User: Which sequence fits this backbone?
């Protein structure tokens, strides 16, 4: 019992303590501009203690900002899955489709969100006020799509021939084969892709908000940098990290649920 | 015209250069209600043969017909039990069988489909496990589900592709008894593929040895004229059993011996000498030594 507590409580806490001490030392010696842990807490206290308060457009509680970001991420993420999953299936099912589109996918995949965002804004210039939101959505979807696309394709390609033989012997129709055999057999791979995609979507949101200045964790971070409130940058970083961690845990629980198949 | 008729069937794999013929000129006729066992070494093309009958593969030459209809594609009129069970792991025992019933009898009411499914689960003694998924079942239980699924399709012919070879000896004996009982109950036409002569003799009316490949052909069929129902213990003491057993095994051994032939081929060996590192290194792009190809050797191998 004690051993278990040590493993998941005491040792991680020790790790945090070491990090805080190092941070303190760095702020006192190497970089005098870096706020110390204590100063960070003092200056960002009101954002943490009143996490949902709204004082102005760019002056809101940290969880309220997080909420804005999460909503935008959710929209972009859903878009990525809706577009990415069918593409993955087609890549996996059709050799011709894979040969045709694989090169372009391999070229687009490593492009940074920072490069996509301006294009997204240009694409939706016509929509006026909504351009920043649609541009950000476009960027999230384009960047977060690839793990889903590639994992789904791998999953479809690695469906055992046995399952396909069962479908053939039973003469299942194409739709039935898809829904009764191909999709269930691919689910574990698809969820691995979904998890990786969510991680990327959360990475992209910060960049997108920083560049567009939308209210959200990333927008807040950039604004506080410009306002020389460095301690709140650290608050934002910690929030982003914590939220990303929680999202990943949630997805891995869902993923494990499907791995048993 | 026999119920299942194979005429001059050949099948090979690979492309022109490295092509190897697995089955060569297979002729086979099976009557309705007959239980035929095809016995052969592993790797002799047994699974290829059953895949051809199932329609999962197309022959390079020859024709296959079931009930006077050419076999061109897989279909539920040929129930197949695969060696590796081929159950869908995300479905329960009930659902695995129900999907087959649902597909084969689309006009039935759901209640009738469910009742039909339950009856086949009961036939293989799996009613207590009906809500389990394949991952929670032992190999023997999985194979029973697979048998139940094939029978629930009410096929014209049942194809068993080494259904028991992945099981331990005791489970295998139990399942052999079960297959024997089920066959006596509904007298389906059965083609059993196996590598175990005893299994074939215990279950079948007729045994056909598949001669060792490549280019395997079917041997002379041997009628198993032992009375049914057969008792495993008594069987071992019957002189006729021993006779049939010897005949099958000799036939298989003979085919394996005949396959040993010699071939002679030309080999080009790599002709590489150690690099000479004493002198100065050659200029950029130059090679230290030319690569020669002067030694060509002939060898004879027995395969």
Assistant:
């Amino acid at each position: 019992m004690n051993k278990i507590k040590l493993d998941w409580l005491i040792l991680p806490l020790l790790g945090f303590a070491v990090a805080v001490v190092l941070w303190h030392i760095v702020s006192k010696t190497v970089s005098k501009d870096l706020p110390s842990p204590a100063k960070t807490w003092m200056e960002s206290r009101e954002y943490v203690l009143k996490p949902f308060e709204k004082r102005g457009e760019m002056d809101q509680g940290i969880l309220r900002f997080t909420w804005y970001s999460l909503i935008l991420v959710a929209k972009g993420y859903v878009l990525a899955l809706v577009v990415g999953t069918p593409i993955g299936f087609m890549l996996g099912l059709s050799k011709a489709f894979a040969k045709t589109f694989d090169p372009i996918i391999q070229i687009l995949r490593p492009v940074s969100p920072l490069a996509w965002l301006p294009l997204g804004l240009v694409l939706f210039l016509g929509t006026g006020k909504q351009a920043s939101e649609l541009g950000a959505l476009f960027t999230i979807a384009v960047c977060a799509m690839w793990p889903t696309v590639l994992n789904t394709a791998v999953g479809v390609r690695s469906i055992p021939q046995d399952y396909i033989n069962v479908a053939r012997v039973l003469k299942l129709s194409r739709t039935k084969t898809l829904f009764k055999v191909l999709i269930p057999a691919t689910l574990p791979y698809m969820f691995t892709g979904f998890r990786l995609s969510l991680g990327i979507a959360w990475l992209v949101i910060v960049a997108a908000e920083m560049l567009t200045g939308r209210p959200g964790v990333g927008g807040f971070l950039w604004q506080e940098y410009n306002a020389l409130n460095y301690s709140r940058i650290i608050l934002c970083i910690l929030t982003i990290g914590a939220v990303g961690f929680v999202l990943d845990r949630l997805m891995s629980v869902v993923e494990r649920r499907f791995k048993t198949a | 015209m026999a119920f299942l008729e194979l005429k001059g069937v050949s099948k090979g794999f690979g492309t022109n250069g490295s092509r190897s013929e697995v089955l060569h000129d297979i002729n086979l006729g099976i009557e309705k209600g007959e239980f035929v066992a095809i016995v052969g070494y592993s790797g002799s093309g047994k699974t290829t043969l059953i895949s051809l009958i199932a329609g999962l593969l197309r022959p390079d030459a020859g024709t296959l017909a079931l009930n006077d209809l050419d076999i061109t594609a897989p279909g539920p009129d040929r129930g197949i039990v695969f060696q590796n069970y081929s159950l869908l792991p995300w479905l329960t025992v009930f659902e695995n069988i129900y999907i087959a019933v649902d597909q084969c009898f689309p006009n039935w009411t759901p209640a009738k489909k469910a009742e039909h499914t339950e009856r086949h689960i009961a036939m293989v003694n799996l009613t207590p496990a009906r809500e389990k998924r394949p991952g929670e079942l032992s190999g023997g239980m999985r194979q029973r589900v697979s048998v139940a699924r094939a029978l629930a399709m009410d096929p014209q012919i049942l194809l068993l592709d080494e259904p028991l070879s992945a099981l331990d000896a005791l489970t295998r004996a139990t399942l052999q008894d079960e297959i024997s009982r089920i066959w006596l109950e509904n007298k389906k036409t059965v083609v059993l593929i196996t590598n175990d002569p005893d299994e074939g003799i215990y279950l079948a009316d007729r045994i056909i040895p598949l001669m060792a490949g490549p280019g395997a052909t079917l041997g002379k069929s041997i009628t198993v004229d032992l009375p049914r129902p057969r008792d495993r213990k008594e069987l071992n003491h019957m002189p006729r059993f021993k006779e049939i057993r010897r005949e099958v095994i000799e036939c298989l051994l003979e085919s394996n011996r005949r396959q040993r032939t010699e071939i002679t081929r030309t080999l080009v060996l790599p002709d590489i000498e150690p690099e000479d590192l004493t002198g100065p290194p050659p200029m950029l792009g130059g090679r230290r030594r030319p690569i020669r190809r002067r030694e060509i050797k002939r060898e004879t191998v027995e395969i």
Remarks:
- Chain B touches chain A through 21 residues (CB under 8 Å).
- Chain B has a mean pLDDT of 82.
- Residues 4-258 of chain B form a domain with the Rossmann fold fold (CATH 3.40.50.300).
